[in-house]
Design goal:
Arc Repressor Mutant, subunit A, 4 domains, 4-stranded antiparallel β-sheet, 5-stranded antiparallel β-sheet, 47% helix, 12 strands, alpha+beta, SH3 type barrels
């Protein structure tokens, strides 16, 4: 489970509440399940829903609990709904605010230069005046929540350049060389690939192509592609191959059971809180050992090793990868490379 899933669920909850009316926990869980991608549909637990509702309350949204018999129903306060200016709903204002703020800060964005810059700046200023404070704070908090998923704006720029190069190669039927890591792999290496399809699935762009070395179809997450070199010559698409179906099947295979990662945190850490976050962000997690002489240990079953690796680096010396050895060595190399910058 990715951090992106948290954001999507909570945004869907906000959209449900902003239409007015109250909802019981079962109704909200049913709504969340109904809006899932049919190919990736899952059910959410009552515990997850309670965390999501608590998050929205902490973000400033005035959710109210209304008891009906033995059951609790939830709604946004009528005063808050009346404070959202027309013609948009709360989530639509937040989406517009976030989109403008993100696009203005993107590298090379024309929205901060003449002639568009002053006009967009004016629109942005007016939005700040009319969007309710809680809604504005929530919109401004969108980017930090996404930072752990799509990276900083510089990372987004790199992914965009990689995507554009691959899209052009696909149009021209030209082979490429990728410096990339497959899903679940630690290290990047060069692949010779005939690129067939670049499509958005499950929260990110994925490339489907035939790997020259093995002669077999493979899939690469765009976030794991460091560099693209477009080669000479041309390739032919295999006759009768359903590219969309092939991509979906290989993504299902790539997800698999994931990796079992054991981490040790220094004494004083909150292992239950860490396990709860990991369960939301990366996959099933549990506390393997509570605070002892060596600290606490938490185990998570994760398939997004790149995301987990970046998250762990934020702890610095406060966290240690116990296993698997490959991830332990990769994190150690990341820290060593960071240290070299300060020597």
């Amino acid at each position: 489970m990715a951090l992106r899933d948290q954001f999507i669920r909570r945004w869907r909850l906000l959209r449900s509440f902003e239409g007015g009316g109250s909802f019981g926990a079962e109704e909200l869980l049913e709504r969340l399940a109904r809006e899932e991608d049919p190919e990736e549909r899952r059910t959410w637990s009552l515990r997850t829903l309670q965390r999501d509702l608590s998050h929205l309350i902490k973000a400033g949204f005035p959710l109210e609990g209304v008891r009906r018999g033995r059951k609790m129903r939830y709604r946004l306060s009528e005063a808050y709904l009346a404070s959202v200016p027309e013609p948009f709903r709360a989530s639509e204002w937040a989406a517009l605010y976030y989109a403008l703020s993100t696009l203005r800060e993107a590298p090379g964005s024309p929205l901060k230069e003449e002639p568009l810059g002053p006009s967009v700046g004016g629109v942005f200023s007016r939005l700040r005046e009319i969007v309710p404070a809680a809604l504005r704070a929530y919109a401004e908090g969108v980017e930090p929540r996404y930072a752990g998923v799509v990276g900083a704006l510089r990372e987004q720029g790199r992914i965009r350049r990689v995507g554009e190069a691959l899209a052009e190669a696909i149009r021209e039927r030209r082979p490429v060389r990728l410096l990339a890591a497959r899903p679940g792999e630690m290290r990047r290496r060069w692949y010779r690939v005939d690129p067939y399809l670049l499509e958005y699935r499950g929260g990110g762009y994925h490339l489907l192509g035939r790997e020259g070395e093995r002669g077999a179809l493979g899939v690469w997450h765009l976030q794991g592609v460091e560099s693209v070199r477009v080669g000479r010559g041309a390739f032919q698409l295999p006759l009768g191959l359903n590219l969309e179906a092939a991509l979906a099947e290989r993504l299902r295979q790539a997800r698999g059971a994931g990796w079992s990662v054991r981490m040790r945190f220094r004494k004083g850490a909150d292992p239950e809180g860490i396990a709860s976050f990991l369960d939301e962000a990366f996959g099933p997690a549990r506390v393997a050992r509570r605070s002892g002489p060596g600290g606490s240990e938490v185990v998570v079953q994760a398939s997004d090793l790149w995301g987990l690796r970046r998250w762990l680096l934020a702890f610095g010396p406060e966290a240690e990868v116990v296993s698997p050895q490959e991830l332990r060595l990769a994190v150690a190399q990341d820290l060593e490379n960071a240290l070299k910058r300060y020597r």
